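Today's session is about reading a structure prediction critically. Students often jump straight to the picture, but the first step is always the sequence itself: look for stretches that repeat, for charged clusters, for runs of hydrophobic residues. Only then move on to the predicted structure, which in these notes is written as discrete structure tokens rather than atom positions. Here is the chain we will use throughout the hour.
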Amino acid sequence: MRRSQLAINLVSTRHDSLEQAFGAYAAAGFAHVEMVIPQLRDYLDEGHTVGDLGRLLEDRGLDCIGGFDTVLSGFGTAAARGKNHDQLVRNAELLAGLGATTMVVGTDGPARPMSAEAVIDDLAKAASAVGKRIKGMGVTLCIEFNWSPVVKSLRTAAQIARRSRSSHVGVLFDPAHYHCTPSKFDQLDAENVAMIKHVHVDDMADKPGELSDCNADRVLPGRGCLDLKAIFNRIEKLGYRGYYSIEMFSDRLWAMTPRRAAKLMYNALLPYCRGVKR
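Below is the predicted structure for this chain, in token form.
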């Protein structure tokens, strides 16, 4: 990866305001931010505008690359699915207004057992429907495997994205979920990597995947058991050119000031960047 591809997810720090968070990220060296959409909604509910948000970022030399909020619904009643899809479209509109190009989603699951083919087909149809509605916004829906009761591997998420037949549906790759699910290194093949449109960065405590907490057991890159260099080299060799957004759920980092936490995260990413002196 290159330093220009580094980003930080807003969930990675605890902050009193977006102003504080953005200032901390810029001071740490980040130029790109992945948003927690409910935090943006809260800011707008205070009477601010999307233009105000854009200026907050621009004034600090930052841009918005994407965000996340909720799951994609492929099951349940037509009314419930429609309400969910409308919400995702509104979220995409907000992100597009900030110049973002990705929106991460999980998925729901069926109330009753279904065949694997039926599950994949229903979720692909739902993803396709939303993908068509957000196509003109320039935003791609990125399915996060393991943020779901049924989508538990890169393979499954990639199958859904392919079957959607939408250029605005892809996959999020997250090493934490890779570690905790049936995903294997051989699934990082050309066909699946072609579906990866966004990458989260984290490492994992040295525990068996099935006994790990995919959020609480995250550690800073380089301090865990994952061979991140091999993983990232693999997906880059197969054509990935997008952002690498660090996403941490760490009580230790959350207890720090945003500025200190952001700097620790930025420094932890640098050893993975080409052309950066150690």
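Discussion point for the tutorial: Strands lie at 6-9, 32-36, 63-72, 102-107, 140-144, 169-173, 196-201, 203-204, 218-219, 244-246.
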